[in-house]
Amino acid sequence: MIEALSFGFVQNALIAGILVSIACGIVGSLVVVNRMVFIAGGIAHGAYGGLGLALFLSISPLFGALGFSIALAVVIAFLTYVNKERADAVIGAIWAFGMAVGIIFADMSKGYNTDLTSFLFGAILSVSSGDLWLMSVTCILIIAIIAIFYKEFLAISFDMEFSKLQGLNTRFFYTLLLIITALCIVACIRAVGLILVVALLSIPPYIAEKFCVRLSRMMILSSVLSIVFTLTGLALSYMLDLTSGASIILVASFAFFLTKAKLVLRRGNGL
After folding, report:
1. How much is the average pLDDT of 21-34?
2. Average pLDDT, rounded, for the chain
3. How far does Cα 51 stand from its chain's mean position?
4. pLDDT confidence of 114, banded at 50, 70, 90?
5. CB neighbourhood size of 189 (10 A)
6. CB 191 within 8 A of CB 122
7. Is 212 left (phi over 0), alpha (psi -120 to 50) or beta?
8. Sequence ranges of the domains in the chain
9. d(CA 212, CA 224)
10. Which tens digits make up the pLDDT trace of 226-239?
11. What distance in Å separates the CA atoms of residue 56 and residue 112, rounded to the nearest whole number?
């Protein structure tokens, strides 16, 4: 395994894994606390429409997914802000719409050579220098926005109605949170893919939540757990010749079930 670190594509994969883990740890904590995992899944799967449209227009798939996913985030925010009880129907429709649009535009793109499967399930070992720049900029942007508006995000995460009564523009920050989630999803496309990114956004924060009482600490622990899961998954995929994205999520899932089982046993023992 040590000799593999001399290869450029492995170094790129490690850097990408760390960047993605930090982004998912921070954004995922907000997603879990606000119970928006299903919304994140809708944005992630809907972003496939941007990939298909990018192929049709012969532009970068990542930029296509970025624009499309941000547009979906704004639409979802507008439709679910007032009536969250029926958000599942809205998200399901957008989820299906995005996937359908992506497939149709891919069919209409004659002679395209890009393998969309890599965007669905991830191909972290094929991350390029350009992808790393995009991930770095996205990660810095996410950290900057959350650092500037941390108190506002904290307020809407724990009491939306009270924050509104205090004069906070909750609609704006709710929309901004979904846009940040869309940015994070696009940054993770190359690493774990659109289908598996929801697991990386939810599993580490869920585990971190059980050991933290503050959102800031939850973000830090979640990022550390994500890095551990990502690097362990990469090592397994290299040694066993497995798909990297699936290996990362498998490691995270194992940790999730282990944590869940431990909590159940504690409750059963009256602790």
Report:
1. 90
2. 83
3. 16
4. low
5. 30
6. yes
7. beta
8. 8-268
9. 13
10. 999 988 988 888 88
11. 9
Q: How confident is the model at residue 146 (pLDDT cuts 50, 70, 90)?
A: very high
Q: What percent of the chain has pLDDT over 70?
A: 89
List, in order, residues 6 or more apart from 128 with CB less than 8 Å away.
12
Which token pair is 175? 């929309």
In angstroms, rounded to a whole number, what is the distance separating the alpha carbons of residues 71 and 65? 10
- Cα within 13 Å of Cα(48), Cβ side: 30
Q: Cβ of 213: how many Cβ atoms within 10 Å?
A: 7
The model's pTM is 0.86
As a whole number of angstroms, the longest Cα–Cα distance in the chain is 63
Q: Which CATH superfamily is domain 8-268 in?
A: ABC transporter involved in vitamin B12 uptake, BtuC (1.10.3470.10)
85-101 pLDDT, tens per residue?
Answer: 667 777 888 888 888 88
Which residues 6+ apart lie within 8 Å of 132 measured at CB?
A: 12, 15, 16, 19
Do residues 11 and 5 make contact, with C-beta atoms less than 8 angstroms apart? Answer: yes
